Amino acid sequence: MSIKMLIRLMLRFKVKNMKIAIVVCRPKRRICTAVSVVILVLAVSLISACSNLNKAGIIVAGSTSVQPYAEVLAEEYMILHPDAVIDIQGGGSSAGIMAAQSGTSDLGMSSRILKDDEKSLWYVEIARDGLAVIMNPANPILNLTLDQISDIYSAKISDWSQVGGTKAKIHIITREDGSGTRDAFVNLVMGESNITPRAIVQDSNGAVRQLVADDPNAIGYISLGLVDDTVKALQLDGVAATRDNVMNGSYGLSRPFLFVALAEPTGQTKQFLDFVLSPEGQQILINEGLISPSEGTGK
Amino acid sequence: MKINKEKISGIVFLLIALSALSVLALITIFIFIKGVPIITKVGFFNFVFGMVWDPSHGAYGIFPMIIGSVSVTLGAAILGVPVAISCSIFLAEYAPAALSNIVRPAIQLLAAIPSVVYGFWGLLFVVPAIRNYLGGPGLSILAGSIILAIMILPTIISISEVSLLALPRQYKEGAYALGLTQWQTIRSVLLPAAKSGIVAAIILGIGRAIGETMAVIMVLGNAVAIPQSILDPARTLTTNIGIEMGYASGEHQQALFATGIVLLVIVMILNAFAQYVTRRK
Q: Which residues have a Cβ under 8 Å from the Cβ of B205 and sit 6 or more positions away?
């Protein structure tokens, strides 16, 4: 009882006080609140900007194909070097190369070879990645030739029965324009022909894999390292899409993963690069399903 | 002294209000600066009515995306508007207070669900259902229309309910006095009287559907060709920006900003039309 009464008393007191407060200093309060909000916002943004400046670590930006591997590497590196701060950002191969060129990032990640006008940059191949053409496990087809894949993607072949499957329309899945994976696929498979505009476009390896896993009539392409048992990697001209075959060069669909910089890196950035290229760093990439450039001849 | 304070408070609020407005101006100017060069380079006609979108080969035609936006939005309106208007009639005229007090917040909650959740739900339930029962890849205009139809429900329902409730009581009383039944009253008195509000609600709902991106990216398939059936994948203006911005640079990026200009103009026309309809007597 006594507690209840106390609360009631407090409430009444507060309410009275508040009423007085509202009546007396309404305009003042409004101004105060408004001004303090503005000051607060400015202060917060200033502080966060400052803290970013103080903590300038290494910024690595670029290809979303390389990004997950770079994140694993950075994580391991930061465990070994607790002071180091490595910030991995996506954006795509072209954006990564541009960021390295302009100096907004210390390292750019690229999942395609450099174009002629980008050749002046310093770069190193940290790993190779196979490109797997994937299908739903329910699809009876196991093997296609490069030409058949090219014809499927340019819509010259539109039914699975034309390449020895059961009669059903082929659902073509591709990546968006500008993606490094798409770029590699176009360079390695398509030759002169274009990917049909009717193809379904997805914006990540994961989304392509998910769709193919759900749709028995779908075909797509993703990083070899990301193939799991929900999808089936096609044989290419009779050669299975395996790490060994990429290494010995018999499986033709592979692409380099590059780190790009404006000039040969020094200091912190060099330390991180040395770690990536060291046997430990390479072993991490191999464990994640990539192929070390030192392992095989590649192509 | 007091007048001074009043003045200062007025100025402070004016400044803050202007800062909100200046953001709008800033965004608009920025989009135009970034987007106009590519439109002038390609040519306005070629850009808006061009059939081929292939940035890596320098082809920037967004007509397939305009068709995509229009067809998905139209589908959403066909599916969503009848449901939404029936729902608002139910809430305004039929539902007992106890029930409408549950239904109304529930519909508001529909607006609070993040669009990515709608997209994910669509990808996991709507897309496989379409693929299994209707054929095609599942990622399609139909899937996008279904998701958008649900997403525009709260907008249309709440605005048209408000415009029904805002009608003078005399309309209904007069109709009852003439011996009209409840349905006759709704059909021949209340709906025509609230017409402008309901039309505005539909237009605002359509504006919302045209601007939606995340949910649509996930279920629409994003193919850059003019769709031939509602089971074909398509790409809208918003998803064109959303799906390609990650990798775009140079002219490609400008073309995406130019897509934004077209989108901005379409949404502005729609909003202006909604304003015009509500103000007209």
A: B77, B80, B81, B84, B152, B155, B156
Per-residue pLDDT, A23:
43
What is the percentage of chain A residues whose pLDDT exceeds 70?
79
Question: Where does residue B219 rank: exposed (0-12), middle (13-18), buried (19+ CB within 10 A)?
Answer: buried
- For the stretch A215-256, pLDDT in tens is 999 999 998 888 889 999 999 888 998 888 888 888 888 888
CB contact under 8 Å between A200 and B221, yes or no, is: yes
Mean pLDDT of B25-37: 93
Say yes or no: A73 and A147 in one domain. no
Q: Is the dihedral of CA B231, B255, A96, A94 positive or negative?
A: positive
**Average pLDDT of chain A?**
81
Q: Is the pLDDT of residue A17 over 50?
A: no
- pLDDT digits 0-9 by tens, B234-264: 999 999 999 888 777 778 889 999 999 999 9
Q: Are residues A138 and A229 in the same domain?
A: yes
Inside any domain, residue B245: no
Among chain A residues, the shortest Cα distance to B248 is held by A178
Residue A44 has pLDDT above 70, yes or no: no
Residues 227-266 of A with CB under 8 A from B: none
Distances (CA, A) of A81 to A218, A288, B73: 45, 21, 53
Which residue out of A102, A176, A179 would a mutagenesis test of the B interface target, given it has the greatest number of B Cβ atoms within 10 Å? A176
Q: How far apart are CA B142 and CA B21, in angstroms?
A: 37
Residue A259 pLDDT > 90: yes
pLDDT digits (tens, 9 = 90+) for B102-151: 999 999 999 999 999 999 999 999 999 999 999 888 899 999 999 999 99
Q: How many domains does chain B have?
A: 1
Task: Flag whether A253 is in a domain.
Answer: no
β-pairing, A107-110 with A58-62? parallel
Which residues span the domain enclosing B130?
70-239
Contacts of A202 in chain B (CB under 8 A): 222
Among A100, A116, A120, which Cα is nearest to A108's?
A100
Which residues on adjacent β-strands are paired with residue A254?
A130
Residue contact B247–A196, C-beta within 8 A: no
Give the Cα separation of B13 and B8 in Å (integer).
9
Pairing mode of beta strands B59-60, B53-54: antiparallel
Residue A171: name the closest of A210, A227, A211 by CA: A211
Residues B132 and B170 sit within 8 Å (Cβ to Cβ) = no
Query: Between the CA atoms of B1, B5, B10 and B16, what dihedral angle is there, to the nearest 10 degrees?
Result: 150
Contacts of A98 in chain B (CB under 8 A): 249
Amino acid, res. A189 = V
Helices vs strands, H then E, count in chain B: 14, 2
User: From the CA of A260, how many Å to the nearest CA of chain B?
Assistant: 17
> ipTM of this predicted complex?
0.81
- The Cα–Cα gap between A244 and A224 comes to 12
From the CB of residue B181, how many other CB atoms can be counted at a distance below 10 Å? 10
Average pLDDT (B7-15) is: 91
Can you give the CATH number for the domain in which A108 is found?
A: 3.40.190.10
